[in-house]
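Page 37, continued from 36.
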């Protein structure tokens, strides 16, 4: 499921705007998820948050929501491999619960406030994305490229990249 928005209404219903699959064009629909509504009403909101984090961690739900960001931040900051964590969570439910509680701590985490000024080596940073920093006109990789990186198509074709006059 591709999820755009998760909303809790005033009458404690969990409403989700989602597409059923990843086939383009996406057909987003807004509807209630009864099982999550039941979890919210019978248990409480922290239990619902753990259930949503579990759906995003397992990959059953996808999308750019705060739950997906919390899963990503936890894996990144703790240096955890997602597939190894899946395997361990299947075998050890106590580990899964502790990992989900750690993820819940990142639900309201914002790494860079909107109005702050960042610099890298004395130059203003425009945007930070996974693996690179964007300046106004150029990009710098944070992590070096792997040794299996393929050369640019022009280099493979033997086209010179610099011209001599």
């Amino acid at each position: 499921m591709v999820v755009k928005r998760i909303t809790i209404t005033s009458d404690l219903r969990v409403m989700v705007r989602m597409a059923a699959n990843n086939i383009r064009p996406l057909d987003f629909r807004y509807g209630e998820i009864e099982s999550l509504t039941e979890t919210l009403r019978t248990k409480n909101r922290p239990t619902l948050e753990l259930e949503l984090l579990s759906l995003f961690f397992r990959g059953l739900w996808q999308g750019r929501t705060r739950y997906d960001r919390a899963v990503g931040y936890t894996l990144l900051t703790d240096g955890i491999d997602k597939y190894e964590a899946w395997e361990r969570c299947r075998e050890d439910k106590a580990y899964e619960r502790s990992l989900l509680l750690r993820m819940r701590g990142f639900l309201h985490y914002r790494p860079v406030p909107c109005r702050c000024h960042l610099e890298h080596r004395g130059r203003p940073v425009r945007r930070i994305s996974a693996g690179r920093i964007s300046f106004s006109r150029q990009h710098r990789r944070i992590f070096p490229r792997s040794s299996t990186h393929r050369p640019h198509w022009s280099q493979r074709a033997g086209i010179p990249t610099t011209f001599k006059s």
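The helical segments are 34-42, 45-58, 66-78, 82-91, 93-104, 153-156. Flag for discussion at group meeting. The longest strand covers residues 2-8.
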